[in-house]
Amino acid sequence: MPTFDQALRKAGEFGRFQRRVFLLLCLTGVTFAFLFVSVVFLGSQPDYYWCRGPSAAALAERCAWSPEEERNRTAPAPRAAPERRGHGQCQRYLLEAANASTALGCADPLAAFPNRSAPVVPCSGDWRYVQTHHTIVSEFDLVCVNAWMLDLTQAILNFGFLTGAFTLGYAADRYGRLVVYLISCFGVGVTGVVVAFAPNFPVFVIFRFLQGVFGKGTWMTCFVIVTEIVGSKQRRIVGIVIQMFFTLGIIVLPGIAYFTPSWQGVQLAITLPNFLFLLYYWVVPESPRWLITRKEGDRALQILRRVAKSNGKYLSPNYSELTVTDEEVSNPSFLDLVRTPQMRKCTLILMFAWFTSAVVYQGLVMRLGITGGNLYIDFFISGVVELPGALLILLTIERIGRRLPFAASNIVAGVACLVTAFLPEGIPWLRTTVATLGRLGITMAFEIVYLVNSELYPTTLRNFGVSLCSGLCDFGGIIAPFLLFRLAAVWLELPLIIFGILASVCGGLVMLLPETKGLVLPETVDDVEKLGSSHAHQCGRKKKIQVSSSNV
């Protein structure tokens, strides 16, 4: 009796139905990109800031000073380090200590002190900001001794991603892809609105964590759905194009942020579209591959007939039964990913690949982004740079397979990092060119790992396996800023050397993975163990479940 892949070929592997579902779910990539990098604009530094004491505030009001006049006359000169994104002063003049018989003058308040030298004290919390866009930095005073709290907001988001990878990845394999996707979209929307109207920083952090949890659920689950609903020949297209929509989100976000003056407006603009995804309940089906693993062959066949009708195909009454695995349905666990030799090898290599991609990608983005130029233009250009990587993948991945481009992209990124570290400072154009080549290489590696990860795990473990392995990406995202800036304090080029070693080692390990070009998606762990053998096309032990055509 026909397998699911045979029935799918008859119903159409990438017809009108799949294209519609695919394009709708691709929009999730745009909103996930918004969430992933939004801190760049939510937490952008003000042009400058200073500490304001009570005497300075009263004096500024009495003298009708502009913000710049107040800063110049009542605040110490800023001593900003070159790497700081804003500049300000974390101390203030103690103007209250002036001799009571000498009034503070509008022309020169410091004249009331001997030698115009007023005592300097740490700021107690009254800050003044000059900025074109209102951000969480000025909302919650995330400057000076509290500057680390801005980094905490991104670390908390990545921790939410990591939590979502474990919890919602598990839930999607147990309860279904579509239901978890819809719950996640609703969760991102609700928690995002709470973040926008957070009354204090603790509430902001808590709900940003929850938004990360649900955000990971939307991205990973939609990726698995589109991978499972198309044929093997189309997996490489949908797997790469859906990530091009992630890049599209990076390109669009600077425009949204530029024309939205407050961080609350930006937060709402990137959050509210998630509620529209709830309409997908009526147009996006549950994954029929998942239904077969849960022994629900009748529902899977109903979806296939719906696919065939929309694609202008005809699924004859002969397709009244599908073969399904005779394995008992069990809840996925980490042990399932490492119990057998092939699964264990794939899991460990993929975990390292995810970790390396995140550390090198985010490290290079942060390193290239410290230019002191226009934040919006620089961010836009950084997104455009990623597009050639996706196009190169589409041109190579089906011709020569997944493994070689995956390894080559990591090695190119690694070599580019190592070469850039030792290039002389006197030729900046060459350093920029080589570093950009490294950025393209790691972008390709980051996009290929999604596809390879989904193709190397069986249907019974796919969502859980992809979510678990990609959790190392979230862990890498947490430590990447610390790795970059701590090592750069020792030697500016040391982070590049670490990035180069990680990427080069990853490129070598990737060559140990089995090639999945042209193979049907594995249904069971046994199928994964046979990958690379002459029997890789077989689907293990099967049995037939009779599906009455009258129930379809």
From TrEMBL:
Topology with respect to the bilayer? Multi-pass membrane protein
Which keywords describe this protein according to UniProt?
Cell membrane, Glycoprotein, Ion transport, Membrane, Mitochondrion, Nucleus, Transmembrane, Transmembrane helix, Transport
Checking Pfam families in the record gives:
Sugar_tr (PF00083)
The UniProt record lists the Major facilitator superfamily (MFS) profile domain at 94-518
Catalyzed reactions per annotation: (R)-adrenaline(out) = (R)-adrenaline(in); tyramine(in) = tyramine(out); guanidine(out) = guanidine(in); (R)-noradrenaline(out) = (R)-noradrenaline(in)
Q: Name one GO molecular function term.
A: quaternary ammonium group transmembrane transporter activity
Keyword RNA-binding, does the record have it? no
Q: Quote the protein name from its UniProt record.
A: Solute carrier family 22 member 3
